[in-house]
Fold this protein.
Amino acid sequence: MSEKPLIKENNRLREKLNQHNKEVYEDILVYIRLNYTSKNEETEEILNDLLTHIIEAQRNGKKIEEVTGKDYRTYADSIIEELPRRNVWKLAGKIALTYLGILYLFSYLMSLAFNIIDDAPLSVTIDVTAEIFYIVIMSLAGVGFVFLIFHAIQYTLFRNWPAWKEYGLVFIGGAISFLILMIPGFLKNAIDIGPSLEMSLWIPVLLGIILSASGLCLLFKPEKNAGRYRNK
Amino acid sequence: MNRTQILKGLMEACILKIIHDDIVYGYELSEKLQNLGLADVSEGTIYPILLRLQRNNYIYSEKRTSDFGPKRKYYFITEEGKNALKLMTEEWDRILGPIDSILKEDTQHVRKTTDKREQ
């Protein structure tokens, strides 16, 4: 079974848990899923194994703590530790591609819209040196931003925090990172060295569409070798 | 040090042995461990160990329909797993005696090299 049917099955089976067990299990699920160093399919598989175990334990009148122990985080960590590792660089590359694509698409789509409104020529001058600098910085920052959000959400789990505190922390983290991410954009406009190119505004917009579409495709494409445990 | 900590390394061998002896799925495996006297080990402890055993190719799993209820994931031992279990059992035999006597007997009478020099 590949990743998607496993997630579907998990969503269906999870409804069989009582409220307390469901809350704890869902925290464990989100915590383990957010661990970007583990392979997706194996992650979903162990999550389902654990879920079916908890359902059976619940049916026999046991609490989830008898399955996971009282320290849920330590238990989740012990599972993560044994999950097969994925290639994090490859994942970072896919995120960077998607992130750059979205960035290009939106920033140049905005310029395009404003130029159309202002009746200005639909062209843009791109400073090659500054653009390369911008692409490198933004790729690194974009990947860092995504991983930071994952860690921020992981941090909020198992703490019994009220929802406003959980979302608040993630929101503040996201807002600060976003503001920091704006800096390279301003710096790009300040650098004025090396050759520059003039082109139609549609080119970076199109580039944005291609980059984000291929990035998303790669991110959501099932991995090769997935489910290798069963191929015996 | 509590029981769970002492057991951590040994659980791998215990789980491998149970899978060697019988066809079980996760819940049954943990039930067997509990019924064999490891009642205070959390049931879920088996899952990280099952992952490790699979990674080392000691076991593999297969979804099968059970006599009652839904499809379950059953575990089976591989040839590599059988060899590993044999080694683990031999290792256990080697350390069981010495550790048992260290913990239960008075070790004061055991000779050290400095004893000779002092004489």
